[in-house]
Amino acid sequence: MPNFKYKGINSDGKVVTGLVEASSSVDAESVLSEKGISILYFKEKTSSSVDLSLFFSKVKNKDLVVFARQFSILISASVTLVESLKILANQTTSPKFRQVVSELASEVDGGARLSDSLESRDEIFSKFFVNVVRSGETSGKLDEVLNYLADELEKDYDMTSKIKGAMIYPAFVFTGLVAVGIIMMVFVVPKLTEMMRQTGGELPGSTRALIAISDFLVGSWYFLLIFALGAVYFFRKFYKTEKGKNIIDRISLKLPIFGNLLNKIYLVRFARSLNTLLVGGVTITSGLKIVAEVIDNAVYKELIDNTRKEVENGNSISDVFSEAAFIPHMVPQMIKVGEKTGRLDTVLSRIVDFYSREISNIVANLMTLMEPIIMVIMGIGVGVMVAAIVLPMYQMSANM
User: Fold this and answer.
1) Position 122 confidence tier, pLDDT thresholds 50, 70, 90
2) How far apart (Å, rounded) are the C-alpha atoms in residues 396 and 382?
3) Does pLDDT of 307 surpass 70?
4) How far apart are CA 370 and CA 167, in angstroms?
5) Rg value, the chain, Cα
6) Which residues pair with residue 18 across a beta bridge?
7) Helix or strand or coil: residue 327?
8) Tell me, what's the pLDDT at 50?
9) d(CA 121, CA 130)
10) Where are the alpha helices (DSSP H) in 253-342?
């Protein structure tokens, strides 16, 4: 008996999905109707056809940025919501995201709200994205809200891409150094040290240490591999716990150089997200609740949750932020001005602009600083290798 995949709205007004088994599509629709489900999307599920492109495809942040931008342009051009989604489904390059957008078009065409359909796919669309769209639907300014959302998503994506791009060069060089070092220790050093051992002379301490490391890598490399994989596994498992995430996130904000960079990144994301929600018509308390889930840092999440509770009790955001040691003093002062003048969204936008430039400067300085640091590390590595291998060989030739 065939299965039919469906999506509909139940008697409580919630969007539900699932499979129903029936002899025909008519019987399947009757079963769903008896359950009080209004069908939005309905299709027979065939087990024989498996689309591997959907299995391996992944929805990237760039896909969401492009989707939001193109969606805002189409809505601004007075293209209907359903037609816009159908156009976007045809233009999307990601197979998985194409299917998602097609399903959105079918559901909206069937009478569902766009925000409800987005919310049912929380693995792709964040609560921040959903609530901004919902605010646009409620206010009747979906085109304006989508345009603003696209701007903010693009800025966040550009900032993240710039930071990742800056880290590629040092990561590549560091990986190359490690790879060359392992090759030297495993293939080159054993041959040289065997010759030095045959002389029977007294070897320097640096040479003996180098030989010990080489012997360990050659004879017990699998222990090192198991230890590395185990360390990564337990670190990820520990980080997924509430206590572990809290500890690691606090340490990350106190790291030299990188702690300051991470702090500014989270601050920009907080200000940008809250600003976008406020412009979209979301209340401050609701906005803070959503932003707390957007910021992927336990320290900031705790601060924002405490801020929301204080705001609900009649206090201000600036009062809570001024007590946080990791928040720059300028931020609560600017927020206080925004709260007094009723222009908090404008002030948050100014905070985003200022600290975005700060992040760009830090990244640029890191790139400038990384080159001499890498050269020094390479020089030390080469010096150690020369002292441990060439010096004993020179002594051997001098004694002959």
Assistant:
1) confident
2) 21
3) yes
4) 10
5) 29
6) 6
7) coil
8) 46
9) 10
10) 258-279, 284-294, 298-312, 317-322, 330-341
**Starting at the edge strand that comes first in sequence, how are the strands of the sheet with 3-9 ordered?**
15-21, 3-9, 38-45
Whole-angstrom distance, CA of residue 1 vs CA of residue 43: 14
Query: At 334, is the pLDDT very low, low, confident or very high (cuts 50, 70, 90)?
Result: very high
CATH of domain 57-154: 1.20.81.30
Backbone φ and ψ for 123, nearest 5 degrees, come out as -75, -15
4: phi then psi, degrees, rounded to nearest 5 = -120, 125
Q: How far apart are the first and last CA of the chain?
A: 89
Higher per-residue pLDDT: 232 or 45: 232
Cα–Cα–Cα angle for 5, 11, 17, nearest 5°? 20
Residue 389 scores a pLDDT above 50: yes
* Rounded CA separation 257/272 (Å): 23
Q: Which value, to the nearest 10 degrees, does the dihedral of the CA atoms of residues 231, 236, 240, 244 take?
A: 40
Classify residue 18 as left (phi > 0), alpha (psi -120 to 50) or beta: left
Of 126, 134, 147, residue with least CA distance to 74: 147
Mean pLDDT of 89-95: 84
Q: What is the DSSP letter of 36?
A: T
**Domain covering 258-360, topology:** Receptor-associated Protein (1.20.81)
Q: What is the pLDDT of residues 287-298, one digit of tens each?
A: 898 888 878 889
Q: How many Cα atoms within 13 Å fall on the side-chain side of residue 379? A: 6
The Cα-based distances of 338 to 61, 276, 316, 341, 347 in angstroms read 31, 15, 11, 5, 6
Q: Do 224 and 178 form a contact (C-beta atoms < 8 A)?
A: no
> What integer best gives the mean pLDDT of the chain?
82
CB atoms near residue 204 (< 10 Å):
13
Instruction: Give the number of other Cβ atoms within 10 Å of residue 378's Cβ.
Output: 14
123 exposed, middle or buried (CB, 10 Å; 0-12, 13-18, 19+)? exposed
Q: Name residue 45's beta-bridge partners.
A: 3
For residue 3, what pLDDT is reported?
64
* Residue 178, both tokens: 């490690």
Residue with tokens 């959503």: 290
